[in-house]
């Protein structure tokens, strides 16, 4: 006889997300010679970062993994702690409850449900954009405002939606005639939206978007992702 890898039996598709969380946690954090079904309740945050990165790269099938600033945002999210430095999180440990039991503050979903939605969206619709590093993605709305507030009119960047599962939104600067700036967030696009019209074409459509942060003309950044417009009878 031999012990199998973890298996979760589900009776409905809506349990798929929680099943994946259980399997991921067991695969990543169980000891080889453990008693069956015994897994650590808490794990070091650094180990969690490695696991999320490996999962992201494998699922999306990209060589471009998560960066330090992405881990910082994810730590703030999972711990509900807006500490100002990455070092504040280095020696912390994260629990199973924080990963996939406790609902995120002000939301209707857990950290894993949100992260899994990002995975699915990126895999289905954004792989090439992510691999070309055109999407910052894991960044808070507050930090986006800080980054963009001093930029010229029409500067924009792409981030994953905080309020919706599996959504990507465009934040852009509108600068008034008096020089004051305002950062607008466009309604997030879901996988369904992007299957109807691709992200590149949507960015081309929006005249108020000019330069991808920090300063790349949008046609230069996204030109290879535009689809040729069909004309006439087509």
TrEMBL record:
Where does the protein end up?
Cytoplasm; Nucleus
Domain (SH2) spans 114-213
Q: Which UniProt keywords apply?
A: Activator, Cytoplasm, DNA-binding, Nucleus, Phosphoprotein, SH2 domain, Transcription, Transcription regulation
Tell me which Gene Ontology terms the entry assigns under biological process: cell surface receptor signaling pathway
> Is the keyword DNA-binding in the record?
yes
A single MF term (Gene Ontology) = DNA-binding transcription factor activity
* UniProt xrefs under Gene3D superfamilies: EF-hand, SH2 domain
Q: Entry's InterPro entries?
A: p53-like_TF_DNA-bd_sf, SH2, SH2_dom_sf, STAT, STAT_linker
Q: What is this protein called?
A: STAT6 protein
């Amino acid at each position: 006889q031999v012990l199998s890898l973890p298996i979760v039996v589900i009776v409905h598709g809506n349990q798929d997300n929680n099943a994946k969380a259980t399997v991921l946690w067991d695969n990543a954090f169980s000891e080889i010679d453990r008693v069956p079904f015994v897994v650590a309740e808490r794990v070091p945050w650094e180990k969690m970062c490695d696991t999320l990165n490996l999962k992201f790269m494998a699922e999306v099938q990209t060589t471009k993994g998560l960066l330090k600033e992405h881990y910082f945002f994810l730590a703030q999210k999972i711990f509900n702690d807006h500490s100002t430095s990455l070092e504040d999180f280095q020696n912390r440990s994260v629990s199973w409850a924080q990963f996939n039991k406790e609902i995120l503050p002000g939301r209707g979903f857990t950290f894993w449900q949100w992260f899994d939605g990002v995975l699915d969206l990126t895999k289905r619709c954004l792989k090439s954009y992510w691999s070309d590093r055109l999407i910052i993605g894991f960044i808070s709305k507050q930090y986006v405002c800080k980054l963009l507030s001093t930029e010229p009119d029409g500067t924009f960047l792409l981030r994953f939606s905080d309020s919706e599962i599996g959504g990507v939104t465009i934040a852009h600067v509108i600068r008034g005639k008096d020089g004051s700036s305002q950062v607008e967030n466009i309604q997030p696009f879901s996988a369904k939206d992007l299957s109807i019209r691709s992200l590149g074409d949507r960015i081309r459509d929006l005249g108020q978007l000019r330069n991808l942060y920090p300063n790349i003309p949008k046609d230069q950044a996204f030109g290879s992702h535009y689809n040729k417009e069909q004309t006439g009878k087509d």
